[in-house]
Structures are given as C-alpha cells and as structure tokens.
C-alpha cells in the first residue's frame, strides 16, 4: 500500500513537472514571437546610429563627440518622448486585441499619429537651436557648433519616429512582426552600404553619413504604411476615420504619462553624457563614455525587445481576462531576459580592453573605456531586468505610477548621488555613473515589489 502511494506521488510530481515545462515552452514561444522581431528591430535602429558613429568617428574626434551629444541628448530626448507616447498605444491596442475589439486598433493608431505629430512640431526648435542650448549646458563651443550641424540633419529622422514607433506598436500587438523585421534588416543594409558609398567613395564625409541615415530611417516607415494600407491588417485597418478626431483626451493622457515614464528613463543616460561634458578633457571622456553607452545601448535594445514582449503578453492576457496567464508571462519574460543579461555581463568583462577600437582609433579612449568596464557590466545586469518590469507596467497601464517611481529613483536618488560621487568625491565619470547605477538599482527593487504585490485579478 505504501509503495503504491509513493508511486502515485512520484507520478503526480512527474506530471506536474512535465506540465510546468510544457507551460514554459508554450509561453516562451508566444514570448519570442513578439520579442524576437522586436529585439531585432530595436537592434537595427540602434545599429543605424552605431554605423554612423563608426564612419564619423574616423573623420575626427570632434565629429564623433558631437554625434554622441546629438544622439544621446537630443535624439534620446525625442525618442524618449515619442517612443514613450507610443507605449500608450501598445497598452490600448494590446488590450483591445485581447478583447477582440479589432476595429479600435486602427482608430487608436490614427489618434496617436495626431497627438505625436503635434508633439514633434514642438520638439523641432530644440534641434534648430541646439548649439546655444548645448553651450548653456556646459558643452564646449567647437563640439556644440558641430552638434548643431548634425542636429539639423536629424530633423527628418525625428519625424520618421512618429510613424515608426506607432506602427511597430500597432503591428506587434497583433503579432504581425515579420514585416517589421524584414524592413529593419533592409534599413540596416542600406545604411551600411550608403554610408560607405556616400562618405568614403563619394567623399561627402559627414553629410554622406547623415543622408544615408535619413533614407534608412524612412524605409521601414514607408514599407509598414504600404503593408497596413494595402491589406496586411484587414481586421484592424478599415481606412481613415473621422472617429480619430474624437475622444482624443484619453489617448493624450495615456500617451503623456507613457512618454514621461520612458523619458525619465532614457534621459537618465543623457544626463550622464551631459555631466561628463563639463569635465576636463571632455572630448576623451565623452568618447569613452559613449563607447560604454553604445554597448549598454545594444543590450538595452534586447531589453526593450523584452519590454515590448512583456507589454504585449500582459495586455493581451488582461484583455482576455486571464490573470494567471498574465502572471506566468511576467515570470517567463523576466527570467529569460536576466539569463541573457548574465551572459552579456560576462562577455563585457572579458573583452573590455578591445571593444573601443570598433568606434575610435584613439588609445586614450580605449584606456578610459577599460577603466569604466566594471560599471558598464553591472549596468548591463540591471538593465536586463528593469526595462522588462517597465514593460509589465505598460501592459497593465501603470504608466502614471511608474513615472513617479522613475522621477524619485533617478532624479532624487541616482542623479544627486552621481553628482556627489563624481564632483564632490572626486571620482569624476566613475562617480557619476556609480551614483546613477544606485538609482537604477532602487528603481528595479521598487518595480519588482509593485509587480509582486499587485492583485492581478483586480487588474483584469
């Protein structure tokens, strides 16, 4: 009798383990349907900048530092606003798709276009008058003037973000990701070839790289618009509608809270570049930090892919009314992203002495980059979890709450500590970055606690 009971318990345990493995496998497939293309698309988007930096960095250190300022300050400022606002569209479309209210996705997309185009018009003057703005923030005159030239070229790229981010959110909530992936691959290939031909062979230098970057950023937009307008989304796109002009306030409210949430996160690294630019030997410091932030950016693109997947999976399951599935999706996506983050953390520590030569020929930059590698490694580890938890917030519609969390953790804890360690403590770039890592760590703990304590039945 006892043997039969033991055998029955072992069989039940084995079935439970099989069931868990099967559940993880099923959820992982759903996760990667969204995360794979999302990661590739975001890596491609960041790759456009890295290719540009690789070509411009070999033109001169001033040009490289100027491009870093434009991308990490002005570019990230605009990306933070527009991508953040688009994450509000992800919440609306994801929950509507889960609830099978398909007709609303096209309406939400059009409303987001109206709102974000209006915001982009307000941002453009920052690019036109970037030189005096950067100088007033403590940057050198030479770098600021070069940055102004680059920022004028950047304006068409800014406008492309309005359509690029919203179309990506709209399509990925429907798991129509392959069109995004193929267009992203085409964009990266065009930019690599275009930069080489225009900058090196045609001897157009900086102008050649920027022309190539503009064309490459608009390729995915045009391709996705053609896909949507000509039958790619028959259930969710039924043409332009006057309904898009009504009930804009809920979209504006969610878009703004989403924008603030992501902006506070993206601007945090911009503050690191900005503070570094006020130090002695700013050019070398900015270039070394830029190399580190490029690596950090590559890993963030992975995490932002998982952020997108977390947002889609959580919003879809909440839309369906399944709290257990939403909670299980959160566990799977966080564990997957953390595992990848640990691998990247190890690789950075192993290859820390060589990586900077991809972006610059300077031995000084390589040496400075090596000294920052330990901080970079731990930033990568934190960034493998924190953006994913932000994706959970997007899926659940908590953007307003997380905006307050980001404000406190980043700008009341992290940034003051960075200034204290860097300027008062005399640790310079290392001190600034260390303080800001503390802010990110606190934010990760707070978001983990919020996710753990949430009543998901109530969220449904």
UniProtKB/TrEMBL annotation:
The keyword Transmembrane applies. Its main location: membrane. The chain crosses the membrane at residues 31-57, 69-92, 113-134, 146-167, 179-198, 204-230, 295-316, 328-351, 371-396, 403-425, 431-452. One of its GO terms (cellular component) is membrane. The keyword Transmembrane helix applies. InterPro entries: MATE_euk (IPR045069), MATE_fam (IPR002528). Belongs to the multi antimicrobial extrusion (MATE) (TC 2.A.66.1) family. This is Protein DETOXIFICATION. It comes from Acorus gramineus (Dwarf sweet flag). The lineage of its organism: Eukaryota, Viridiplantae, Streptophyta, Embryophyta, Tracheophyta.
